[in-house]
Structures are given as structure tokens and as C-alpha cells.
Amino acid sequence: MGSFFRLFVGVPGAVVVTVGLFLLMAELIRNDLKLDEERDALNLSITSQIDDTDLNSANQEFKRPTLDAPPPPPPAVNDPSNRPALDGVRAEIPTIDANLNIGSGFNPDRDAQPLVRIPPQYPERCMGRASASESVSVQFDVTPDGQTTNIQVVDTSNSCLNRAATRSVERWKYQPKIVDNQAQWRRGVQTVITFELSE
Predict the structure, then answer these.
(1) Which pLDDT belongs to residue 155?
(2) b vs e for 73-109, b when ≥16 Cβ sit within 10 Å of the residue's Cβ?
(3) Which keywords accompany this UniProt record (predicted)?
(4) CA 23, CA 29: separation in Å to the nearest integer?
(5) Where are the domains of the chain?
(6) Are 159 and 187 in contact (CB under 8 A)?
(7) What is this structure's pTM?
(8) Residue 142 pLDDT exceeds 50
């Protein structure tokens, strides 16, 4: 209600104020005081004066700065008693009676090492009867190509999650077991996959 009242009162009031200001401005322009046309215009003359410089006198006034002399070299020491002894310390190398084989530090043989482990998806059908944290223990073999095979569930806290765990392990990739520079099967790898519900 108040906005309609402001609209009907404010718009005509604004029109009246605008027309009044317009008429006042027109009257002021009509009765403008005429400046004395006889007044002389202000003449300004700006000239720049260039001073000629004598290059010969400028060169004579310029003096190069004097540089500091470098410090003198340190005095030479000719006294032989001031020189250090170069004999060093003489000692015998101790003998250690131990039969050690430290090897080269490089062992080319290694066990299968995981490269890619894709975490399993929590199945929606299992969320209703699952606790906050469930685990599935699986056992599998690693081929010489690094693929997982013969996947079996060893122990589980919720059998509904077994299929999701085995499908996840199927996509894992391993660096195969190396024996004598040859890729070998790695059998009986066991791991525990944990399923956690995020709240």
C-alpha cells in the first residue's frame, strides 16, 4: 500500500520539481549579464630562449674522477721457520680379523610388488545390513605378467562384500616376482581389503 502511495505522490512531485528547475535555468540564461565586449583580451606571449653552450668550455670543465689505488700486496715471508710441517701423522693401518662379504649392494631377485591397487566400491545392496567398517581377507596368485589370478576369499566379516572385493583384486597390477633375472609365479599372496562407510 505504501509503495502505491509513494508512486502516485512522488512521480507528480518529481515532474513539478523538474519543470520548475528547467524554467529557472531558462530565465537565468535569458537574463545573463553581458560581459564588457570592450575589455581588451588578455594577450600572453610565451617565448622560450635557448642558451647556446660552448662545447669546448664544457669539455674543459669536465674532470674525470680519480680512482683509488689498489692496496699493496702483502709482504712476502722469507722466514723458513714460519712454514707449516708437511710430514703429517704416521700410523699403521689396523688389521681386522673378520671374514665379511659385503657384496655389491644390488640384488636383482625380488618378490612381487604392487603397482596398481584400485579400491573396491561399496555395494549399495550391502549398505543396509553392514556396520561402519567391514573387512574381507583374500588370497591370490600373481602371474609372470603381473596379473592377479586364482582369487579366493579366505575370511570375511560380511559375505555380501565378497564379490566386490574379488572384482577389485582382479584389476590389480603387480610387478612380478624375479628369480635369477626371470619372472616367476608368486603364489599365496594374502591381503585384507577394508570397507568403510562414510557418514
Answers:
(1) 93
(2) eeeeeeeeeeeeeeeeeeeeeeeeeeeeeeeeeeeee
(3) Membrane, Transmembrane, Transmembrane helix
(4) 10
(5) 113-196
(6) no
(7) 0.45
(8) yes
113-196: CATH number: 3.30.2420.10
Tell me the pLDDT tens digit for each residue of 14-28. Answer: 889 999 999 998 888
Rounded Cα distance between 172 and 113, Å, is 11
Banded pLDDT at 38 (limits 50, 70, 90): very low
CA distances (Å), origin 30, targets 11, 24, 33, 34, 58: 29, 10, 9, 11, 65
